[in-house]
Automatic annotation (TrEMBL):
It comes from the Bacteria. This is Glutamate--tRNA ligase. ATP binds at K242. It is found in: Cytoplasm. A motif ('KMSKS' region) lies at residues 239-243. Its EC number is 6.1.1.17. Residues 329-464 form the Aminoacyl-tRNA synthetase class I anticodon-binding domain. NCBIfam families: gltX_bact. GO terms for molecular function: ATP binding; glutamate-tRNA ligase activity; tRNA binding; zinc ion binding. A motif ('HIGH' region) lies at residues 11-21. Belongs to the class-I aminoacyl-tRNA synthetase family. Glutamate--tRNA ligase type 1 subfamily. PROSITE patterns: AA_TRNA_LIGASE_I (PS00178). Monomer.
Length: 468
């Protein structure tokens, strides 16, 4: 039996949860959940100048909105600094690392001379093999002893085998002069101690893998499975940036996309399963594997996101939809639904879900169920009402007084009025929409009547008739 899969997402809390980071988290979540493994969260907060509690909370909120649940408590990298330093000193004691007393000026001079002579500017420390008895009483860093010959091969599940000549690797610093660990060391120690078996991250980290493997190999620790995924580009093929629109997950929540639609779309950004476009979390977890990840950057496409979002809204349960809409309104800073509005929206949901690509679109369609008399009519509704045949609304109101409140009876009542007036029902529909919703783009008039009920429908028709 193979070891259980353990993946992790390790964001830096220096800002919001970027959409690219969200996709990385999703891929790790899918891979672990689909194999009964663990998905861990580590906050890489070693950059004390830029890391903030607010940014950490923003990341956690973004993860919660996307529904990417993690196992255990989030790990703080800075809280493990002593453990990182302990490992550096362990390597020092084993002769696999050394104290380097070279100053910044000396390193700069070395590189300048190398440039002048056309040699590699990778710093080669004169202290690598120095006798400890010659060590001065001066500040020092701890450097790992990089392999000097041969090659390092990164066996990557997405990029294939990537070979780097060891002459391209320098004796990387592990501990700075003030005793603080560098990022490269912290990542390796944390991944090892957390039992991470698969490192799934952006391909901008690919070169880091070779340097991190030096630490794994020096300590005799198993190297995790690498999977470096291409970055996300904008529609123009350039790296995703502010000019392409929203970058943070919260922005997509405030635009009113359902979390399931966002997960589905992000999963399809750079990964595929045949021709499948629309799928559930369960299917994604079952299908997701490295073989489906392409090597080329994925392009963000709002039209595809809108399309998938609409499909998810149409298939979501009313209860789930209402819960997400309540959260959306709160996140977007809009007024919360009253108890009455919540009840009416739930009642109307059956005729709102189709063809709504976002929550704002759904709420716009459901506007008729959320408003109270007297209804404010927009410009198009006023024009439509002005064109209503004389007495039509009053006649309809009289007929509906005694009508049985079912779709068939409502359709029959309206059809009879249209026939009596020698016109088609379509001619009556526009002023009816205006009377019932104050808008001209709405669900069908029959759906609105059924949702509103007899009394509210008749009251709105009376109001419109008096206005006309």
């Amino acid at each position: 039996m193979s070891d259980p899969v353990v993946t992790r997402f390790a964001p830096s809390p220096t800002g919001f949860l970027h959409i690219g980071g969200a996709r990385t988290a999703l891929f790790n979540w899918l891979y672990a959940r689909g194999r009964g493994g663990k998905f861990l969260l580590r906050i890489e907060d070693t950059d004390r100048a830029r890391s903030t509690p607010e940014a950490t909370e923003a990341i956690l909120q973004g993860m919660r909105w996307l529904g990417l649940d993690w196992d255990g408590e989030p790990v703080s990298q800075i809280a493990r600094a002593e453990r990182h330093a302990e490992v550096a000193h362990e390597l020092l004691a084993q002769g696999k690392a050394y104290k380097c007393f070279s100053t910044q000026d000396e390193i700069a001079a070395f590189r300048e001379e190398a440039r002048t002579e056309g040699r590699s500017t990778l710093f080669r420390s004169p202290w690598r093999d120095a006798d400890p008895a010659t060590h001065p009483d001066a500040p020092y860093v701890i450097r790992i002893k990089a392999p000097e010959t041969g090659q390092t091969v990164i066996n990557d599940r997405v990029q294939g085998d990537v070979t780097i000549g060891n002459d391209q690797l320098d004796d990387m610093v592990l501990l700075r002069g003030d005793g603080s660990p560098v990022y490269m060391l912290a990542v390796v120690v944390d991944d090892h101690d957390m039992g991470v078996t698969h490192v799934i991250r952006g391909d901008d980290h690919l070169n880091n893998a070779a340097r991190q493997m030096m630490i794994y190999n020096a300590l005799g620790w198993p190297v995790p499975v690498w999977a470096h995924i291409p970055l996300i580009h904008g529609p123009d093929g350039k790296k995703l940036s502010k000019r392409h629109g929203a970058l943070g997950t919260k922005e997509y929540q405030t635009m009113g996309y359902p979390a399931a639609g966002m997960r589905n779309y992000l999963a399809r950004l750079g990964w595929s399963h045949g021709d499948d476009e629309f799928f559930s979390d369960e299917q994604a977890q079952e299908w997701f594997d490295f073989d489906g990840i392409g090597r080329s950057p994925a392009r963000f496409d709002f039209k595809k996101l809108d399309h998938l979002s609409g499909q998810h809204i149409a298939t979501m349960s009313d209860a789930d939809l209402l819960r997400e809409i309540v959260d959306y309104l709160d996140t977007a800073g809009q007024p919360a639904l009253t108890t009455g509005q919540h009840s009416q929206l739930k009642k109307a949901m059956y005729c709102l879900k189709d063809r709504a690509r976002s929550f704002p679109e759904l709420l716009e369609k459901g506007h008729f169920s959320l408003i109270q008399r007297p209804i404010e009519l927009d410009e198009k509704a006023l024009a439509a009402l002005a064109k209503a045949p004389d007495g039509m609304l009053s006649e309809l109101t009289a007929q509906l007084q005694s009508a049985s409140w079912s779709r068939d009876n409502l359709e029959a009542a309206l059809a009879s009025i249209a026939e009596a007036r020698g016109t088609k029902f379509g001619k009556l529909a526009s002023p009816l929409r205006a009377a019932l919703a104050g808008r001209t783009v709405t669900p069908s008039v029959f759906d609105m009547m059924l949702v509103l009920g007899r009394d509210e429908t008749l009251n709105r028709l009376n109001d419109a008739a008096n206005r006309a």
